[in-house]
Design goal:
about 260 residues; mainly alpha; 10 helices
Length: about 260
Amino acid sequence: MPLPALDRMFITSAWLQSMIYGINCVLFGVCIYALCVQKKKAHWVVLVSCIFHFSIATAHNILSLFYALQGLTNPAIISVAGGSILYFSRVTTLSLTMLGLYILNVLVLQLLLIWRFYLVWDRNLFLTIVMLILEIAHLSTAFAAWSMVIRFGVVITPTTKALLKACLTFNLVLTISLTSGIAYRLWRAGKDTFGLTSHNIYKPAIYTIIQCGAIYTSSIVVVCAIHLSGSPAGVMADYVGVQLAVSTRVILRST
C-alpha cells in the first residue's frame, strides 16, 4: 500500500502555521502594549505566560522550517524515490522536539486556565482538584497515544485510536468545564454589581472567554476527528493546533 502524500500535507500545514503565527505576532504585540505600555492591571503570571506561549509558537515555527528544509531539500533524502514522503512518515529528532513543544504548550495552557478558574471560584480547592484530576487523565492518555504514534509512526492502530478517544473526551470535558465555569463566575460577579454600574462590567471578558474556548474546542474536535479517521494528516494537523492554541490563549491574557 503506497504511503499518502505526506510531503504535500506538511507543506499545507506549514503554510497554515505561518499564517496563524503572523496573527500571533500581532496579538502578542497588542498584549504587550496593553500590559507594559498602558500598564493594564494584571498578575505577573499573565505577562510571563504571554511571553512563554509566544516563545513556544516561535520555536515551533522555526523547527517547522528546519523540518521542511530537511525533508524537501536534503539531497540524501530527495534523491530517493518518494524520499520526502518516507522522511515525514518516520519519527525524527525534529518531529519529536515539535511534539515535545506541543505537549508542553498544552500542559501549561491548561494549568494556567485551571489557575484562573481557581481564582474566580474564590480558591475553591474541591473544584480545582477535580479539574487537576481531569488534566492528569488528559495528559496521561495523551502521552500514551503519542508513545504509540512514536512507535508506529503515522499508522493509527486500534489501541492508538482508543487512547485518542479517551484523550479527546478528557480534553473536551476539561476545556468546556473551565471555560463555562470561568464565564459563569464572571457573569455572576457582573450581575451582583449591576445595580452600581447599570451594566455588566465583565461582559467583554465573558464574550472573549467563550469565543476563545469555542475556537480551541473546535480545533480539538477537528484534529482528533482527523486522527480517528485513520488519516496520517492528523499528525500534520497537530502542528497547526499549536499555533491556534497560542492564539486563543494570548487573547485571553489581555482580557
